[in-house]
Structures are given as C-alpha cells and as structure tokens.
Design goal:
This protein is an alpha/beta fold and about 400 residues long. The strands form 3 sheets. The protein has a 6-stranded antiparallel β-sheet. Helix 6 crosses helix 9 and helix 7 crosses helix 8.
C-alpha cells in the first residue's frame, strides 16, 4: 500500500509554511470555510496528478505575498510505497518583469508575473508524465455533479486522469496526441487560406490516427471495466433494482483491436476532409469523445434530478477507487472534500463504509460532529485555521 506520510507546503496559497506528519487510516481536517482545508487536499492530489484540480493556471497556487517578493512556492510529500520511501517535490518559481512595481496594499494581486514549475522525484528532475502514477489518488468534491450533468470535457478529463494513474504510457500518448491536433489544426487553417499544400496533411493524418486509435482503444477498455464497477457501487447506494451503465460515445467507431479502430479512424477522416478544411479544425478523435450514464436505459445527463446526479457521481468516484486498486494492485489515497454534509445519513454511512477500508482517507469538513459520530476515536483529527494545522484531542 502506498500512503502519504508527510506533507510539506511553502507559500502554497494561504500556507506560508507547513510540515505535517500524516497518519494512516482516516484523517479529518476540520475548520470553517476559507481556512485552508481544501488546499491541503489540493496539494495531496497535485502530488498524484501533477497539477491543481481547481486552478486555471499555475499562478493561482502561489501566495500573492510570495509572488510579490519573487519567493518560490513548494508542495512536497514523502510517500511510503512497498517498503520504499519516495520523495516528491513540485516547486514553483516566480519571475516578475523588471518594470513591475507592486501596488501598496495589493498583496501581489494583479501582478504581472510568470511561474515556472519543476518536479523532482527523489531529487531527480521529472516531467508531469513521469510523476503521474507514482501514487494513486481519488478526489470526491462538490463539483463532481458535473460529471453527470456537465459538458463532455469534464468526463474526458475524468477518464484521462483515471487511465493515466493506472497506465504510465497513456498520459504520454495523450500529450503527443494533443500536440498533433494543435499542429494539424494550424495546417488546416493554412490550407483554408491557400497558404499550404494538401499533401502536407498526410504526415499529420498518419500521426493522428496512430495515437488517436490507441487512446480510443484504451478508453473503451477502461469504460468496460469501470462500467461494471459503477453498476456494483450504484446498487449498494440506491435501490437494488436500478441498473447503471456507462455508454461510450467515441467520435471514431472502436473496433475489436487497435488496428481495426485505426482503419475506422482513417476512413472517417477521409469522409470529413471537406468539413475540416472549411472549419480549420480536426473534427474527430479522442478530443471529441464522451460517455453517458444511463439508469435503466435513461440518459441521466438529461433526466437526473440533482439528488440522483449526486449519487451517480459518488458511484463514479467509488468505481474509480476500485479500478485503481485492481489495475495498480495498490490502494489509492482517498480524498473527500466537504462532500459528506450534502448526503443524507443513510448514503453517508454507505459511502464511509466503503472508503474506510482503504489504507488512507483524508476528509475535510465544517461539521466535526457529523464525522465524529461515525468514526469516533478511530480517526485522527486536525483543526485548520488561517493556514495552520493543529491536532485535536479525541472527542
């Protein structure tokens, strides 16, 4: 089992400095809103997927005061994994233009500065693709409802994070594919403007098909396994008679092999050539994929109530944890960001009854009694206040 034994933060959002020993089992971070509870889970998840789950860009995670003075920020973790100790550090260095003068009292807000991120694992510089998969993590948060009712991009991201944590080759292929689409779109626009030759597209078509077909196949395989896990978890959270299924919506038909999928991809690409030249963009491929959640054959993206969507998103996250355990043969760290208060007592007990079996679960809450009533002295409790974390005595 992999677990986080130590979390180190410097100038990360509202944490000027933190060096926290993190216990195994259930760990509860309690406090009022806007004190730093979510930031702790954000940091842990960042160590797993190499980026923040709630920042639009890297600048947001560096405290304003550090940015104003050009100080670095750091997220560090020590992971105990299969008897080995792994040190992971994600550092952020800020550079301000020489002409920038901080406004008095601004605290760094509005500064025009750039941030460079550097990742090191056991002191060796690594890429984000190298880091992902070092430790598995699953995050439950309030925005998960968008996995059911939100746009396809959120569901694609969910799948990409899931598969990347289980297969280190996937993220690298996805990065190559994204670059190919970017270059191919640029060429399509040049062709539309008459500034390039049509023969130039053949090279990018070949690369698009090669990488895209493999990604489509990986997603299809993952959704097959994930679908069964989702159905099992959903039955335990709702009426046993409800059947949840996941329906893959690839823009390219998935064949019975990667090679067959590539053939479908190439044929569809030829059919869509006039449309692509007219729009200047790649019309099909993994970047256009989606999947639906169906309950008894009904599309929940359209017809689910908010309560149903919340339960479906819980089923997806629980299935994600089960998937990572199966694929990695290693328990993920489970992170629950203030989601328990939105569940009724029965559903809360069912979810907690599942996640408590994982080796390390980190929970944030504004209602300590709610969590303590379930775990009692079996959990470790910390109070989070104004960027500081202090142990709480067992209640």
């Amino acid at each position: 089992m992999a677990r986080l034994s130590r979390l180190i933060l410097t100038n990360f959002r509202n944490f000027a400095a933190l060096d926290l020993a993190v216990p195994s089992g259930v760990v509860v971070f309690y406090g009022a809103n806007a004190q730093g509870k979510t930031t702790l889970l954000e940091a842990v998840y960042l160590l797993a997927i190499a980026r923040s789950f709630r920042a639009e860009n890297e600048r947001e995670v560096v405290s304003f005061s550090a940015a104003a003075s050009g100080e670095p920020a750091l997220v560090g973790g020590i992971l105990d994994k299969a008897g080995d100790r792994v040190q992971v550090y994600v550092g952020y260095s800020c550079t301000l233009p020489s002409s920038t003068v901080p406004r008095q009292g601004s605290g760094g807000a509005g500064l025009n500065y750039s941030v460079r991120k550097e990742i090191r694992v056991n002191r060796i510089r690594r890429t984000a693709a190298d880091l992902v998969g070092t430790v598995g993590a699953v995050l439950f948060n309030a925005e998960d409802i968008d996995l059911v009712q939100g746009p396809p991009s959120g569901r694609r991201r969910y799948l990409d994070i899931l598969i990347s944590q289980g297969n280190p080759l996937y993220l690298k292929a996805l990065q190559r594919y994204t670059q190919i689409v970017r270059q191919r779109n640029r060429l399509l626009r040049l062709l539309r403007e008459g500034r390039a030759e049509s023969g130039e597209l053949e090279f990018w078509d070949d690369r698009l098909v090669t990488e895209g077909a493999w990604l489509c196949w990986q997603r299809s395989e993952a959704l097959t396994r994930l679908g069964q896990l989702c159905a099992d978890h959903h039955r335990s959270l709702t009426s046993p008679g409800e059947l949840l299924s996941l329906h893959h919506l690839p823009s390219v038909p998935v064949g019975d092999s990667v090679e067959a999928t590539a053939q479908h991809f190439r044929s569809a690409l030829a059919d869509l050539r006039p449309r692509e030249l007219a729009t200047g963009s790649t019309a099909l491929g993994p970047h256009r994929d989606d999947f639906k959640l169906l309950v008894d054959g009904v599309d929940m993206g359209t017809f689910a109530s908010r309560g149903q969507a919340r339960t479906l998103s819980l089923s997806l996250r629980l299935a994600e944890a089960s998937y990572l355990l199966q694929v990695r043969q290693d328990e993920p760290v489970v992170l629950l960001d203030d989601v328990l208060s939105e569940m009724d007592e029965d559903r809360r007990s069912r979810v907690l009854g599942k996640i408590v079996h994982y080796g390390q679960t980190l929970i944030t809450t504004t209602d300590l009694d709610l969590v303590h009533s379930y775990f009692g002295s079996q959990a470790t409790y910390f109070r989070v206040h104004n960027g500081a974390v202090t142990p709480l005595q067992t209640m």
